[in-house]
Design goal:
328 residues; 12 strands; Rossmann fold
Length: 328
């Protein structure tokens, strides 16, 4: 089996590539000329130059491949030019699916996000059937992933074998950027968490999430989506776990929503618009935090044999990796 993998130089994609390597699969990894190859060093795999915004390069790079893992995405919660995000996440997914059709690929696993799931303010765990629409998506990242997921689901119902997986919030080693989730760990290590807000996330071990991608290839139903999740935790519970792992203090001051919203406005204006850098807090991230992003993986447990594992090991690997690699 020759597997074509996008996003292998990134966080989750690099773990998917390593799981495939453990299975003995042959791989062709999509890379850009500017890509940092650190996460795929030592992997036995071909590299194909291409870009999600260049459909011709994707069709050429995918030639002869049997299966596709489309993991790549522009994962930022703030971006100066939103059109860049839509070109990568939406049009890039459209181009991947079309290249898969033209090349006669047997099956595509598309990495969506738990961000496309319908969450409520009461914190009740959402699932794949929770009511949701594009209008519910807060921010350009969520909107672009929702639009891309719709393309993948429609392709899976229209003849192309496409399985969609919805990782919750992956945590672990090799988070090179780091992702917005990884920045929570880095900020905690740097003691930049003087207070917390009342919100919640579902954390999943990135290694288990990567294994779930391969299982979805084997067992998933085309045109369906599967939440790959772990533990539902409040932000305070996450910070308490990090405190126990690192010995650093966990914040005890809870910040009211109105103050968090004001801080998001200020950081977005000063850091984002005036300085041109990605803010630590934005209006959209605070709005997202108004809902606990708790999720259920019952469908994946039932159909894929997915198992939820404790998150402590992944948090420990993340803190160690960030420390060893000079992030904190």
């Amino acid at each position: 089996m020759l597997a074509f993998v996008t996003g292998a130089t990134g966080f989750l994609g690099s773990h998917v590539a390593r799981v495939l390597a453990d299975y003995g699969a042959d791989m062709r990894l999509l890379v850009r000329s500017s890509s940092n190859l650190r996460n795929i060093e030592g992997l036995r795999a071909d590299h194909a130059l291409g870009d999600l915004r260049d459909p011709a390069s994707l069709e050429k790079a995918m030639a002869g491949c049997d299966v596709v893992f489309h993991v790549a995405a522009d994962y930022r919660l703030w971006v100066r030019d939103p059109n860049e995000m839509y070109r990568s996440n939406v049009e890039g997914t459209r181009a991947i699916l079309e290249a898969a059709r033209k090349n006669g690929v047997r099956r595509v696993v598309y990495t969506s996000s738990v961000a496309t799931i319908g969450f409520t303010r009461n914190g009740y765990p959402a699932n794949e059937d929770s009511p949701v629409s594009l209008a519910d998506m807060i921010g350009h990242y969520k909107r672009s992933k929702f639009m891309a997921e719709q393309l993948a689901l429609e392709a899976g119902r229209s003849g192309l074998e496409v399985v969609v997986v919805n990782p919750t919030t992956p945590v672990g080693d090799q988070d090179v950027k780091p992702t917005p989730t990884g920045r929570i760990v880095v900020d905690f290590l740097k003691r930049k968490f003087p207070a917390y807000v009342e919100t919640g996330l579902n954390l999943v071990d990135v290694r288990e999430c990567a294994r779930g991608h391969v299982t979805a290839l084997e067992k998933g139903k085309s045109g369906e989506r599967y939440i790959l999740g772990g533990e539902n935790l409040t932000l305070k519970q996450i910070l308490d776990k990090l405190a126990k792992i690192t010995g650093l203090p966990s914040p005890i001051l809870k910040l009211p929503y109105i103050f968090a919203y004001a801080a998001g406005i200020a950081d977005e204006m000063v850091t984002g618009r005036l300085r041109g850098r990605e803010p630590r807090a934005t209006i959209d991230t605070v709005r997202m935090g108004a809902k606990k992003m708790f999720a259920s993986s019952d469908k994946a447990e039932r159909d894929l044999g997915w198992k939820i594992v404790p998150i402590e090991s992944a948090l420990r690997r993340a803190t160690e990796w960030f420390r060893v690699n000079g992030y904190a």
